[in-house]
Design brief:
Bound molecules: zinc ion
Distance between the termini: 14 Å
Strand content: 5-15%
Helix content: 40-55%
CATH architecture of the largest domain: 3-Layer(aba) Sandwich
Structural class: alpha/beta
CATH topology of the largest domain: Rossmann fold
Order of helices and strands: EEHHEHEHHEHHEHHHHHEHHHHHHHEE
Largest sheet: 5 strands, parallel
């Protein structure tokens, strides 16, 4: 039976989450991050020092073209990542991967990056392959972003290795921030991390290529390089050095010209998250159907942990925003992009609807569990 964390609102259906005495591992990690428990503290001062040492080291490498590579979407987080690297005499190469359906505001926000003083390249994947991958990921695994997540993590690292860039500055370590992982390396990207968290449920690009008869040579850019190559650059998570916070990142990004939506993004109450690209909304909606929680839950949980709202207020926000229907604004473009027929699209939605969580009432889905 589905149950919820007693502190935030995460359900036990969330992949990789663990519970101890009714508290989820994401809440436990948050406490550790904020030094609530003295015996499990994080020394943020020391980590900041480590960051400056790392910067010094990579500058010494005198790499031919760039010192650091940053994967960017143009969202508030990537702008913040770049901001931490500014004014240090670094040659920054930002890599944007335009893998799906970019929004107008997303395109605008991406323009902040070169203005900040970093170089920017946009990579557009071979659409003949990418469209098939998104289609198959959606139809057969109920997640259109399944391989896109891999591409977003792997390709900037591969580019860095090939251009002899000594450092890759990744965003948050999602395993720690959202699932409270404590066994994997928190600082550096590893094969283990990638195979577990980027490739959902262990479906690696290699396995995917095999299933769909796509030559691995073509799918390689979706996959992390082997351990020997991985050592040629330092791919580190920003959230290891700087305390990760959506709100703080928003404040920083705004200083560099980041624009938000006028109203909240569909499926949540925030107007500044997931606004740069459209397929992510389908990914989030599928998450809601499969596991019973969507984007508003993610955001309410974060706000509860940061004591911005209480749990009761969080429940109200989730009720109001989490379970709203997928609108044509997202669906139509997705159908056009993938070539999936509308009737098939809704059949797939139905196939992945967790019947233990949802019941049908006329044409609507009703959420069965009661959050206490
Ligand atoms: Zn929790």
């Amino acid at each position: 039976m589905i149950s919820f964390c007693q502190e935030c609102l995460l359900p036990n259906t969330k992949p990789y989450i663990k519970f101890s005495s009714g508290i989820c591992s994401a809440c436990a990690f948050h406490r550790k991050k904020n030094n609530f428990r003295k015996n499990k503290t994080i020394n943020w001062k020391k980590r900041k020092k480590d960051f400056f040492t790392l910067i010094k080291d990579i500058k010494k490498k005198n790499s031919p073209l760039f010192d650091v590579c940053v994967p960017v979407s143009g969202g508030k987080d990537s702008i913040t990542q770049v901001s931490y690297l500014l004014n240090k005499g670094l040659r920054i190469l930002c890599v944007n991967i335009d893998y799906g359906i970019k929004t107008k505001i997303g395109e605008k926000n991406l323009k902040c990056i070169p203005k900040m003083g970093a170089s920017l390249i946009t990579y557009r994947p071979n659409l003949k392959i990418q469209k098939t991958i998104i289609k198959k990921s959606f139809e057969d695994f109920g997640d259109p972003d399944l391989m896109s997540h891999c591409l977003l993590h792997a390709l900037p690292i591969r580019i860095a290795i090939n251009l002899n860039i000594p450092m890759v500055f990744l965003g948050e370590n999602a395993a720690y921030e959202y699932s409270g992982e404590n066994k994997l390396d928190e600082k550096r990207m590893s094969q283990k991390w990638f195979n577990h968290y980027a490739s959902n449920s262990g479906l690696t690009p290699k396995k995917f290529a095999k299933i769909y008869n796509i030559p691995y040579k073509i799918m390689k850019i979706y996959d992390l390089p082997n351990n020997i190559d991985l050592k040629k650059t330092k791919a580190v998570f920003c959230s290891y050095f700087f305390k990760w916070s959506s709100e703080k990142n928003l404040v920083i990004a705004k200083k560099f010209g980041f624009k938000t939506l006028k109203k909240p993004q569909e499926g949540t109450y925030r107007n500044y998250v997931g606004i740069d690209e459209k397929i992510n909304r389908i990914h989030q909606y599928m998450k809601l159907l499969k596991f019973g929680y969507g984007r508003a839950t993610d955001h309410a949980c974060e706000d509860i942990r940061n004591k911005k709202i209480n749990r009761k207020q969080g429940i109200q926000l989730v009720k109001k925003y989490d379970r709203v229907k997928l609108s044509d604004y997202f669906v139509n473009d997705f159908l056009k992009f993938t070539g999936i027929k509308k009737s098939k699209f809704f059949k797939i939605l139905d196939k992945y609807t967790n019947k233990k969580i949802w019941k049908k009432s006329k044409r609507n889905l009703v959420f069965k569990p009661k959050i206490k």
